[in-house]
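Cross-posted from the bioinformatics board.
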Amino acid sequence: MDHHKLVLPEHMNHYGFLFGGYLLQWIDEFAYITATVDYPGLRFVTVAMDNLQFRRGIDTGEVLRFVVDKAGTGRTSVRYRIRAHGIVKQPDPATVLFETMVTFVNVDAAGRKTPLPGQT
Amino acid sequence: MDHHKLVLPEHMNHYGFLFGGYLLQWIDEFAYITATVDYPGLRFVTVAMDNLQFRRGIDTGEVLRFVVDKAGTGRTSVRYRIRAHGIVKQPDPATVLFETMVTFVNVDAAGRKTPLPGQT
Amino acid sequence: MDHHKLVLPEHMNHYGFLFGGYLLQWIDEFAYITATVDYPGLRFVTVAMDNLQFRRGIDTGEVLRFVVDKAGTGRTSVRYRIRAHGIVKQPDPATVLFETMVTFVNVDAAGRKTPLPGQT
Amino acid sequence: MDHHKLVLPEHMNHYGFLFGGYLLQWIDEFAYITATVDYPGLRFVTVAMDNLQFRRGIDTGEVLRFVVDKAGTGRTSVRYRIRAHGIVKQPDPATVLFETMVTFVNVDAAGRKTPLPGQT
Amino acid sequence: MDHHKLVLPEHMNHYGFLFGGYLLQWIDEFAYITATVDYPGLRFVTVAMDNLQFRRGIDTGEVLRFVVDKAGTGRTSVRYRIRAHGIVKQPDPATVLFETMVTFVNVDAAGRKTPLPGQT
Amino acid sequence: MDHHKLVLPEHMNHYGFLFGGYLLQWIDEFAYITATVDYPGLRFVTVAMDNLQFRRGIDTGEVLRFVVDKAGTGRTSVRYRIRAHGIVKQPDPATVLFETMVTFVNVDAAGRKTPLPGQT
């Protein structure tokens, strides 16, 4: 599932590149939305992120494309790989600017881990 | 080096707990500040985070204490471990609510990796 | 082109529904991104919105799906229809919660109207 | 009723002008406040905006003056015209930089349309 | 000169009242705008605030009315008194919920104190 | 107790210096956190700030160090002095860029003033 974000001056750090903290906030939201679309009616909480790699500085005016792919499931959890590309200011839109893995766990209303549909 | 943050209603997700995206944004800022205090005059960019573990839901009104410790250095890089504790709403302020490792690289004005002081 | 947004408590008005001001801000960003993807390399400014209709209150925790379709082009302008649906809390994801039309004009670096590609 | 807003760097788009999304957010708030002052004790929801025209780019440091005038009433609704002027950076403070019409409907606590005072 | 602000859930502290930090931010903006309207073309910087008194908790949904009055001028400075009233949720709109004095100094482009018009 | 904050482009005013409104918001949060650490379990509300002096313009990229010291206690109240220093862009980190006093009152759940521990 794809998501896009416009990088504005309010997102810059003092070096004139995207402040990583905003990127992380967007990742968390886009991964959560993807899980919610894939598994309607479940209740997910983020439990882990791995291998966050910030590969390039990102300019204002860039439009980021986040590609979110399911990378695997456990009994109560699902993992997504997220890659960000720049489609306006990068010479090659296939270049990966940022990459990470996010793991969600399905919980019930009391916060207890609960099997995904089809798991027991 | 310690940092503190007050968790406000504006930081909540729709389940009534701290939205992870804000936590990640604070981590990035606190780790950067710590590196800047430890290495005055250098220019750091975040290149990686590892092993982010969200262990507990965090309530509004919580005051988070972030403990940032240097975990190691390379020729051009420095790593920090960050642990977050809750000092108002947690029964035990030693409980780790969130944990990660952040890696910064020292760059020159052109963005090239540059040795840390004392490295060659 | 589709865009999604998670509605969080920070977006609520004092009646407990999505504050319309945030919805408008998201619309402007999503329409702009769509135009940028459709017409790479052009420089668009928003000149008008029409027929904004707020049809339903929107709850926290809702995931909004914005469907952005090209509705027409002029010599220097392009129009998009935007419709928002709720995919988590609405009984029918086909229900339109909000609808508008956005018009962009293509400008040069000096801000003068400039024909779209294929126009003269 | 007049409202004023200082345009700051955090409100800029990547072309160096006011991001339209912020302007729309302010409009919604200022129109709502005006309706609340005009009709104390009622409960208004925004149902429509029309004829939004972005006529000029707006710079950082501008102080915007929003003039909000009642344009008409229906049995359960009231309409306001909003015009924005620039009083610091525009050569003529009478120039209209942005204009729209906002329609509110008066609702009861259950969200049902309710006549305005003096209507039946 | 009057200014108004709608208090939204995003402005609450964890006790369910307006977070004072937002109130202070609005005060600074409204006082600055007033000085800019009173003295077109000058360049003001805030140098002091005095006697900030937070007298009452403020609820979400409140519409605050800020009354900003000139309290005096020096050779290079001007002082404003700001009082905030609640016009929706307070039984008496004359009640002062918050009060302070703000002092601005007129500076030139190099930041040096500069006499107000009519001063030498 | 010390607190630190990274000044980002989103915090600038249109003169290219830190917008005072953000500084005030940070002060309120840092003073509140300090009081909460000093007096665990109490419920504090800000009742006053005094002698706010903005002494210098502050640049983007500055890391501010806020030193918060207890300045005195009353039967139900506690006062803190807050001084801000710049540790990255100021030639002398001992220079005070901003200074104020904040007074908190301890209240019970109904909002009534309540003695501090050890007071009667």
